[in-house]
Each structure stands twice: as C-alpha cells, then as structure tokens.
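B., you asked whether I could sanity-check this one before it goes into the benchmark set. Here's the sequence:
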Amino acid sequence: MRSQSSSVFSNCLVLLLAFFALFSQLAAAMPVAALEKRDVYVPPVLYPHAGTVWHKGETQNVTWDVSDPPVNITNSVGRVMLRKGDLTTPLILAKGFDILQGHVEVTVPWVIEDNDYSVVLFGDSGNWSGQFSILE
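And here's what the prediction gave me:
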C-alpha cells in the first residue's frame, strides 16, 4: 500500500512539474508589447511659499511652474493636499485638475492655527511648497 501511495505522489509531482515547464515555455514565447516611455514630472510649487500667511475660509490659488513639462507625463490628473510638519494630512484641497494648468483654486480649511503647513501637489509624483502659516 505504501509503494502505491508513493507512486501516486510521484506521478502527481511529475505531472505538476510538466505543467509548470509547459507554462514557463508558453509565457517566455509570448510577445511583450512595447511600453511607452514616460517621464516623472515634478513641477516646483511657487505659491504658497515660505512665509505666506493664509486665513481660514479664504480662497487661495496654489500655483506651480509648468514651463518645462516632459513629453509623456505618467499621471496628468492633479491633487493638492495639506501637509502639517512632516506629515501629509488626509485633507484634499483640490483634485481632478490637469497638472499642466499651473494653478488651482482652494479654500483654506479650518485647522489649528500654526506656521508649519505646506501644500503637496500630486500628479506624476509629489512636490510640496515651503512652510507657511494658517491663521484665524
């Protein structure tokens, strides 16, 4: 009985290895579509800049430099989030805009008054402004 179960196990193992070998050969033979070259775009945030003061509830324009974009941008849909100190908060100030427009209007959120806020511009990657203040 023992040799019979050992034989069944050996047959299953051989069959499994054969399928794996066949699958490997088929996968290696498939043509791979050429990937379009894409560039990471990290436009510098121009405003707000270090020393800027925003007041809660105001409307402000976040601006960034779009003077030298690459030909192929990986993700051109932008999002602006608020950062406090070294942490990006979950507060989304704007989203769904074209990263190449160079600016977006935001409403200053009601947050704790402080002088270590910055905005993070997401699209292709993340780039943040200098630290600024949000006051009452």
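One thing to flag: The longest helix spans residues 2-29. Otherwise nothing jumped out at me.
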